[in-house]
Amino acid sequence: MRTEDEQLLARLEQMLQPKVPIPPGDGWAAAPDLLLYLVEQIRSRRPALVIEAGSGTSTLWLATALRAFGIPGRVVSLEHDRDYHERNAGEVERLGLGGIARVRLAPLEPHLLDGQSWPWYAQSAWEDLSGCGLLFLDGPPGLTAPLARYPAVPLLAGALVPGSVVVLDDYGRDEEQALVARWIQRHPGWRLERLAHRKGTAALHLPDTHPA
What is the mean pLDDT of the segment spanning 75-101? Predict the structure, then answer.
């Protein structure tokens, strides 16, 4: 792990003081600079619901942040891979975060969008969700389909509250830049913030009120 990452993780630990050490993530996990940004968003926005596409170490940090800041919210993480689901759900329980976070098994299934079929998380895993103040997108993996994360906004926009934020990892990749451009076309009132994180991050800020 790079020295900068170690310093950022130490800052997170000092800020949140997890009751049990949070394990380091693998190569797929959100980098520490992005984790710190997400935690800062939770502290400032105090979301009642955080939805995460793709579970992992970030699930643990997000839930720990809600607990540390005394926010009566919850994290719902969607995971299509059974092994990752089992592992990350187990970590949630090991860290005593079961009352705050849930990892839902959500196999990829076809969704009809823009006249074509897109594989994304099963509707049964997210159709009950509403009141989301922070949507974090780090899945599905890009190898599952072209523009694999595109369906997130068309399918979950109705669950977002005014003034919420959509955060996308891996914005340094061409595909993520292309799908963000599509999202902006659908929602021209959303403001794009580009963050110079290691893997690139896009943050889409929704207006404080619904359009008339």
Answer: 97
DSSP one-letter string for 138-179: --S-GGGSTTTTTTHHHHHGGGEEEEEEEEEE-TTSHHHHHH
Distance between CA atoms of residues 86 and 83, nearest Å? 5
Percent of the chain predicted with pLDDT > 70: 96
Residue found by looking up tokens 């970030």 in the block: 58
Task: Give CA–CA dist 142/64, Å, rounded.
Answer: 28
The residue type found at 33 is D
Residues 97/52, Cβ–Cβ less than 8 Å: no
Task: Calculate the dihedral angle through the C-alpha atoms of 34, 40, 42, 43, rounding to the nearest 10 degrees.
Answer: 160
Read off the tokens for 190.
Answer: 């959303």
DSSP state of 192: E
Rg of the chain taking only CA atoms, in angstroms: 16
Through-space distance between the first and last CA atoms of the chain, rounded to whole angstroms: 48
Exposure class string for 29-53: b at 16+ Cβ within 10 A, else e: bbbbbbbbbbbebbeebebbbbbbb
Cα 167 to Cα 199: distance, rounded to the nearest angstrom: 13
Residue 212 has pLDDT above 50, yes or no: no
Per-residue pLDDT tens digits for 189-198: 999 999 999 9
